[in-house]
C-alpha cells in the first residue's frame, strides 16, 4: 500500500538498538539456532504470499469495502489458498496487544509483520518492539517488513546524496544485525516500487535480506520485464518476491484480467527460472468482494498451485 508518507523518525524517537536489545530478551532460548523460516517446498503454492491488512483498511482513502464487514486476513488466505502472509498495519490497526488477533494465523505457514508501515499511532521503535514481542509467542513469524520504505521516487532531497527513505543505511544495517543476533533470527525485508529503481537505492537494498518488488500503477505492468531487468542491475542476486496487485491502487480502479495474466505468467516463469523466490498477492480485504481480478487469481492459483517451480 501507499498511504500518506510519514516523516522519518527523529533521533530521540528512533532508539532502534535499545529497542532491539530489550526485544531480544523476550525471545525464548528454546528457539536457539532455529532457521528464520522453514525452507520452501518444490511447488508454487508454498511460495505464495498474501499482503495482509486489517478488515476495513481500504475504506478510508480508497472507498473499498466497509469497516466491520470485510473479510479478515486469515479468511482471505484460505479463500485464495495461500499459506503465507505479510501483515502490514498501514492504518495503524490492529492495535496491540496482538495476542488474540494473531490466533487467526494458527494455520499460516509463514507470517511477517511490519514496523515501517505508514501507521502514525506509534513510533518506528515502538512498532519494532511490538513485532519482537509478537515473535516471542509465534515461532511461525519469520521476518519483519518495511513497507513504503523509500519516499516518493527515492531521489535525494535538498541537495543530499542518499536515497530519500524512512531510515538511513546505517539504521537499517543495525536493525538487520540485531535481528540476526536474536536467539531466533528474523529476516528483514523492504518494499520497492518500479518507479524507485534508481542506483541511489542500492546501499539500502544491500543491507536487507529480501525485497518485495511492486508496480504501483497497473498501466505500467506493460513495462514489467524491462523494469525487472533494471531492478536486477541494482540488486543482481537479492532474494526477491514479486508483488501482484489485484486492484489498481495507483489509479483507483479495477485491473483488467489481461494484466493479471501478464504479471502472473511472468512471475511463474521467473519462479521456475530461479529469478525470484515467490509471489505476493495484494491484498486480503479485496477477497470476498467478487472482484474480477480476485476471482481470476483464485482460479489461477488453483490451476497452478501444484506446479513444480524448483527441482
Task: Quickly list its features.
globular; 30% helix; eight-stranded parallel barrel; 9 helices; 311 residues; 8 strands; TIM Barrel; alpha/beta; disordered N terminus
**Strand share of the residues?**
5-15%
Number of domains: 1
Helix segment count? 9
Q: Based on CA inertia axes, which overall geometry fits?
A: globular
CATH class designation: Alpha Beta
Distance between the termini: 34 Å
Fraction in helix: 25-40%
CATH homologous superfamily identity: Glycosidases
**Strand numbers in spatial order across the main sheet:** 1-2-3-4-5-6-7-8
CATH topology: the name is TIM Barrel
Q: Low-confidence spans: pLDDT under 50, at least 5 residues?
A: 2-16, 18-34
Characterise this structure.
- With 311 residues, the chain is of the alpha/beta class.
- The protein has one domain: TIM Barrel (Alpha-Beta Barrel).
- Helix content is 30%, strand content 14%.
- The protein has 9 helices and 8 strands.
- It has an 8-stranded parallel beta barrel with strand order 1-2-3-4-5-6-7-8, surrounded by 4 helices.
- α8 links the parallel β7 and β8.
- α1 runs parallel beside α4.
- The longest helix has 16 residues.
- The two termini are 34 Å apart.
- The N terminus is likely disordered.
Strand and helix layout:
Elements: H1 16-24, E1 48-52, H2 59-62, H3 73-80, E2 84-87, E3 110-116, H4 124-137, E4 141-146, H5 169-181, E5 187-193, H6 202-206, E6 210-214, H7 224-234, E7 240-245, H8 257-272, E8 278-282, H9 292-304
Parallel strand pairs: 1-2, 1-8, 2-3, 3-4, 4-5, 5-6, 6-7, 7-8
